[in-house]
Amino acid sequence: MSIGASNPEYVNARVRARRAALFADEDYRKLIRMGPSGIARFMEETEYEREINALGARFSGVDLIEYALNRNLAKHFHDLLDWSEGRLYDLIARYLRKFDVWNVKTIIRGIYTETSSDEVQNDLIRAGEIDDSTIDRLLEVDTIEDAIETLNATMFYEPLLEAFDTYEQTGALVPLENALDRAFYENLLADLGRPQEGPEALYVEFLEAEIDFRNARNALRLARTGADLDPAAYYIDGGVLFTESELSRLVTDYDELVSHIADSRRYGDTLSSALTQLREAESLIQFEHALEAALLEYADTLSSSYPVSVSAVLSYILAKEREVENIRAIARGREVGLSESEIEDELVIL
Amino acid sequence: MAKDVKPTRKELMQIEDRIDLSERGHGTLEKKRDGLIMEFMDILDQAQDVRGELSEDYERAQKTINMARAMEGDVAVRGAAAALQEHPEITTESKNIMGVVVPQIESSKVTKSLDQRGYGIMGTSARIDEAAEAYEDLLQSIILAAEVETAMKKMLREIETTKRRVNALEFKLLPELYENKEFIEQKLEEQEREEIFRLKKIKEKKEAEEEAEKAEAEAEAEAAAVEEPVASD
């Protein structure tokens, strides 16, 4: 399979060094026993030193940790886009555009609630494809309409423009946020086809799982809420678990929906225990936790199967995201007084 | 008090009227107090249940928001909250429980469906949903608790006032009126006795005077009878 004029060897060599700097399991075990200030001090002696020092004067406690984690994540992912070229760049950027979605949503919410651009800027994670100057211009606009116009060179422009009328009618951000998410997910697999083998096959399989799990989560949430929502509006094309009509039908019957996921050849075994819990429990949280763990299992296979390919880079991206989520979960968990076992059981995915 | 009372029949009749009125008022207030206490006990039971539910809802809300903040990050939770379009609205009316005006709080747009919360469904998780739901439940409980506890406090204040009135009638006003009544009755009886005694004395004096006059007349008549034969000689 051709991956165009890309440079996976170079990028993977750099990624291997970055991967080696990730926290090991024993680091998490140490962190779980520390308080927020201890965690910040620990981070100061690691990979996160620069961000902790840079933000230390403006933030403190867990906020400092969270903003330092976000900034570090943005730096690493930005580097990946800087290093990669051609087809590899395209494949990495597809996934990292989720941070563009995050940033645009955050800015739109800021405009909606008339929050100052300084405050909004703190919450951005500049790890996506949209360049800094566009983001800075977005931060300066006063209306959502102007924000959409500023994005006219991105893939989000058309979907946002289409959703804008509904936003104007309802006054709610839901159509704009859904349009952004849909644009991201539908672009993930665009033009990739269904390769049967090689690194792109694994990459596609992972992205399909991501879409399937997102569809499953949304379907379960819609089934539970009982609200009169059109399930088709929340269906993301590209997965293998549901077709649009299947999803629309299953949302009205919760038990059948769970059975459908359980009967899936691809995910049934991986999610069986979580699905059993889901039938009995009130909450979807444990099931979502199981979905996240299942995605990470995929990620682990990605790195080992094709070490010099986009799969290995994606595996690193997921491992880095997992690290940031785990450290944030530990720090926030400790801040709000969760016990070590609660943090280990419910938050940290090793 | 008794010293300031005029011991007259008119005053006695007025006091008797006041006693009658106070006794009737005392009975009515006692009934009102007992009724209020019964209503209060019902509201107290309700308030205890509501308080219990409020504590449970608060703990659940804190737990879910803590979990959401830990797993999704503070920024994501704050962002989802910022997307909220329609804020809850509260209107207050009043209702009357045994003369006590208590508030009746009506709320709208507190519990929202998934699409009414403002944030996009595709990019968020069940943790955010559950935190939002838990806080909606908590807000409902707070509104209910505000209604029930305000009613309870107003009832309690009214019970206290009624109790004070009942006690004032029972232990202050009525005893004083009874005392005054007794005082006037005693005074009137005493006056009556004095009057009888005085009349008796007057009668005795009059009788004595009549006796004396009679004796004097008899003596004069005797003297006249003795002088008459001497003159004829």
TrEMBL record, chain A:
GO MF entries: ATP binding; proton-transporting ATP synthase activity, rotational mechanism; proton-transporting ATPase activity, rotational mechanism
GO biological process, one term: proton motive force-driven plasma membrane ATP synthesis
Presence of the UniProt keyword Transport in the record: yes
Membrane topology: Peripheral membrane protein
UniProt keywords, alphabetically: ATP synthesis, Cell membrane, Hydrogen ion transport, Ion transport, Membrane, Transport
Superkingdom classification of source: Archaea
Pfam families (alphabetical): vATP-synt_AC39
Purpose: Component of the A-type ATP synthase that produces ATP from ADP in the presence of a proton gradient across the membrane.
Protein family membership: Belongs to the V-ATPase V0D/AC39 subunit family.
Protein name from the UniProt record: A-type ATP synthase subunit C
From TrEMBL, chain B:
GO molecular function terms attached to this record: ATP binding; proton-transporting ATP synthase activity, rotational mechanism; proton-transporting ATPase activity, rotational mechanism
Underlying gene: atpD
Biased composition (Acidic residues): 209-221
HAMAP family, per the entry: ATP_synth_D_arch (MF_00271)
Quaternary structure note: Has multiple subunits with at least A(3), B(3), C, D, E, F, H, I and proteolipid K(x).
Record's subcellular location: Cell membrane
A Pfam match: ATP-synt_D
Gene3D superfamilies with a match to the protein in the record: 1.10.287.3240
Protein name: A-type ATP synthase subunit D
